[in-house]
Amino acid sequence: MDQELTVNQVSYRLIRLLGRGKGGYSYLAECGGQPAVVKQIHHEPCDYYAFGNKIEAELRDYERLMSAGIRMPRMLAADTDAERIVKDYIEGPTVMELVQAGESVETYLSQVREMAARARAAGWNIDYYPTNFVVRDGLLWYVDYECNEYSEQWDFEHWGIQYWLPESR
């Protein structure tokens, strides 16, 4: 992938695409020998979600989730003009990768439910889709910064669990 992105005059060499979400593209990158994730906000249409200012939402939601005590990667830098964010890289499989491999994710349910309880207590839902969670050393990390006002319809038990435990559909 031999490309670079600059965030606040610092160049990051892109290694590979980690994923494309409704808000942006996330790349595994490296700077000074250290891995990081660089997220480039995109403005592609999304039929099922309404956005305001995406970079402002990322920054706001990061603070909200940090205050709620959600385990997630640290934000290392933000460039609002270029609409880019740099965060710690959490190495490990996503919950989706585990589900697709037929591995049990039962052991992580208590951790996601604890995150859900913390988010709900603060008035938020996080995006429980399993690509947003990485397992490292037995700990579950929420690697997205998205949160929305709490709604039972979109909480873990009413929405997210169906993707974590496909047999529960």
Defining traits:
169 residues; alpha+beta; Transferase(Phosphotransferase), domain 1; six-stranded antiparallel sheet; 33% strand; globular
Summarize the structure.
With 169 residues, this protein is an alpha+beta fold.
CATH topology: Transferase(Phosphotransferase), domain 1
Based on CA atoms alone, the radius of gyration comes out at 16 Å
- Please tell me the overall pLDDT: 92
CATH class group? Mainly Alpha
Biggest sheet layout: 6 strands, antiparallel
The total of helices stands at: 4
- Unreliable spans are none
DSSP strand count: 10
Question: How would you characterize this protein structure?
Answer:
- The protein is of the alpha+beta class and 169 residues long.
- It has one domain: Orthogonal Bundle (Transferase(Phosphotransferase), domain 1).
- Helices cover 27% and strands 33% of the residues.
- A six-stranded antiparallel sheet has the order 1-2-3-4-6-5, with helices on one face.
- The longest helix is centred in the last third of the chain and has 16 residues.
